[in-house]
Specification:
118 residues, mainly alpha, globular, 5 helices
Length: 118
């Protein structure tokens, strides 16, 4: 996977927008680290990203589904809201989803199970 500066900036901006749209998170509580790999080292991007995700054990990368979801678009709002959108409501498009949402109780149980061994 080759990531150029424009796609990296766009991806980070999209993540920031998702956080800012929530009702219960503040963008100032988040930080990011960036590693620039050029030339042949760029072949390591996927491997390095996977390892960083594994090591950080961030819940939104390992337990909670939906942080990176996009607006499904017209005619597809019958889908269920994601676990992320139940925990962190606020994305305008997610409010239009009409499918059965996952229960908060089930989501919190998943989080407790995942974090009980830490």
């Amino acid at each position: 996977m080759e990531v150029n500066s424009n796609s990296l900036y766009s991806r980070l901006r999209e993540h920031a927008r998702n956080i800012k749209e929530t009702e219960n998170l503040k963008i100032d509580d988040f930080v990011s680290r960036i590693m620039i790999l050029e030339g042949q080292e760029s072949n390591l991007i996927s491997t390095v990203e996977s390892e960083l995700i594994r090591r950080s054990s961030a819940l939104w990368n390992s337990v909670i589904d939906g942080f990176g979801n996009h607006d499904p678009g017209s005619g597809r709002y019958n889908q269920s809201p994601s676990e992320w959108d139940i925990l962190h409501p606020g994305r305008k498009w997610a409010a239009r989803l009409s499918g059965k949402p996952p229960s908060m109780k089930t989501i919190l149980r998943k989080i407790r199970l995942a974090t009980s061994s830490l």
